Amino acid sequence: MTETRTCPECGAAWTSGVTCEEMFHQVLVWEAEDADLLSEHFLTVACYNLQHPAMFQDSAIENLKGGLVLRIDQNAQVPELRRRAAAAYNGPQRVLKPVPERKSVLQEWHMTIAEVYANGEPLGAADRVRAWGKSTREDLRP
């Protein structure tokens, strides 16, 4: 029997003990073999981090939300999003919280890394990442 646990941050099902972080890293590995998926790297990282914010400073999460909104709503190009992030975090600005301050808070999402990972199926992952970006954007609406 397969044991299913859930993520304490995004609520995704961890089937067979594969955690969100492991699914995320596998999707990043797939990028090396899939140019279409690699072209969506910003969305992969933004969605994952927005759904797993415990380690990040609030300002970093707000900046990432702004980047996702620009990408989805206005089709902002990745170089512009990189310039924006570099300007916000140039110098001593910290992105990560100190470890003792990191607290997981469950927030339900309509789509998570588990749907992108699709039980380890790389075929179609780029389309799933694009859908994940749109879904995450919708979940962020007030």
Q: Which tags fit this structure?
A:
142 residues, mainly alpha, two-stranded antiparallel ribbon, 7 helices, 2 strands, globular
> What's the total count of β strands?
2
- Our measurement of the CA-to-CA distance between the termini, rounded to an integer number of angstroms, reads 40 Å
Helix percent reads 40-55%
Total number of helical segments?
7
Report the radius of gyration as a whole number of Å.
15 Å
Q: What amount of the residues lies in strands?
A: under 5%
Q: Your description of this structure?
A:
- The chain is mainly alpha-helical.
- Helix content is 54%, strand content 4%.
- It is built from seven helices and two strands, in the order ββααααααα.
- It has helices at residues 20-31, 35-38, 41-51, 58-74, 78-88, 113-117, 125-140; strands at residues 4-6, 13-15.
- Strands 1-2 form a two-stranded antiparallel sheet.
- A hairpin with a 6-residue loop joins strand 1 (4-6) and strand 2.
- The radius of gyration is 15 Å and the shape is globular.
- The termini are far apart.
- The model has no long low-confidence stretch (mean pLDDT 94).
